[in-house]
Design brief:
Strand content: under 5%
Number of domains: 1
Oligomer: single chain
Radius of gyration: 18 Å
Structural class: mainly alpha
Distance between the termini: 51 Å
Length: 266
Amino acid sequence: MDRAWAILIVAVALTQIAVLATSIYLHRALAHRSLRLHPVVEIIFRVILWLTTGQRRQQWVAVHRKHHTFADREGDPHSPRLLGFWHVQLFNVYYYVRECRNAHTIATFAPDLPEDRLDRVFSSGLAGVSVGLALLCVVIGFWPGLIAGLIHAVLYVFVLAPLINALGHWRGGQNFPNTAYNWRLFAWVSAGESLHNNHHAHPRSAKFSVRRGEFDPAWPVIRALAAVRLLAIVGPPPQWASVPIGRAPIMTSGPPPKPFRLMQLR
């Protein structure tokens, strides 16, 4: 039993590290330019993400920016309002990979992220997770490492990531009038990502929580790194809506959103 709990703890820890790296580096620093990282910290985040997720930064950023541009409208890569809650929850990885293979999406929504030397080294996501799994097996043993790696993959790919996209645009609380929703308890295990309504209201803010009772776990990490000058917070702080609002209307049709421009991120 003790060994089983140790394996589970390792798997959950890996998942939380991957979620924090995704939120701080891919989401806040790259996709929305709300953080500027020290080069050493950036390399560390990129290595962590390659070993734990195998994701390429241009692809993640492009898909996310496209989501913001077409949020819950035609063109949104993973809107539960258009595709259905369970379609996004169960097949989120399919929709993500499909959009990653769209060269036009990458060129349009990530023009500021040209491929560098490290991108070429980390070009194979499968190689990254294979190396990460091998290192895990060396550290904690073959079968424990294999089981912990599998649990981590399930938690990250099939539980947390799709829940953020599906639940965050389906039901929940709102502070601002948009089509996204907050889930305060889920925010504790999703690096604050499920404070989705707040984020869509203030996408360039590095802090996702705006009111008492909301906790963004990535924010203390960001503040700690900023305190030792390993990153700079460049995005504006979020503004709290003083008047409670009701459920925002879901817009799946109507005039198209403004086209994406890189200047929107600055």
